Amino acid sequence: MTAKSAPGTEKPVVGGRKPPYPYRTFWALVLLAGNFLVAAFYFRILH
């Protein structure tokens, strides 16, 4: 049998060089860019 670790001691995200949530990061950046575009139209920077 293998010993189990105590509850709450596991790492929530495995360490690595890759971002943990690339899909979520992509959509966050898309929405942020859209937000800046709408703000540019609102403040008449773009016509």
Topology:
Blueprint: H1 22-42
Alpha-beta content class:
mainly alpha
Can you summarize the main beta sheet? Answer: none
Q: What portion of residues belong to β-strands?
A: under 5%
Look at the structure and give the mean pLDDT. 82
Features:
single chain, 47 residues, mainly alpha, 45% helix
Task: Kindly describe this structure.
With 47 residues, the chain is an all-alpha fold. It is built from one helix and no strands. It is rod-shaped and about 65 Å long.
Outline of the structure:
By secondary structure, the protein is mostly helical. The chain is 45% helix and 0% strand. The chain has one helix spanning 22-42.
